[in-house]
Amino acid sequence: MSRPKNQNYKGHGLSKGKEREQRASIRFKTTLMNTLMDVLRNRPGWVEVKDEGEWDFYWCDVSWLRENFDHTYMDEHVRISHFRNHYELTRKNYMVKNLKRFRKQLEREAGKLEAAKCDFFPKTFEMPCEYHLFVEEFRKNPGITWIMKPVARSQGKGIFLFRRLKDIMDWRKGNAGKKLTSLEAQPARSTANPSGSHSSVALCNHRRHPSPGLFQLPQRLATTILLSVSVDVVLQYIPLRAWLYRDGFARFSNTRFTLSSIDDQYVHLTNVAVQKTSPDYHPKKGCKWMLQRFRQYLASKHGPEAVETLFSDMDNIFIRSLQSVQKVIISDKHCFELYGYDILIDQDLKPWLLEVNASPSLTASSQEDYELKTCLLEDTLHVVDMEARLTGREKRVGGFDLMWNDGPVSREEGPPDLSGMGNFVTNTHLGMWARWGVGTGDVSWEVPGSLEGSLAQWLDCFNLI
Question: pTM of the entire structure?
Answer without folding.
Answer: 0.78
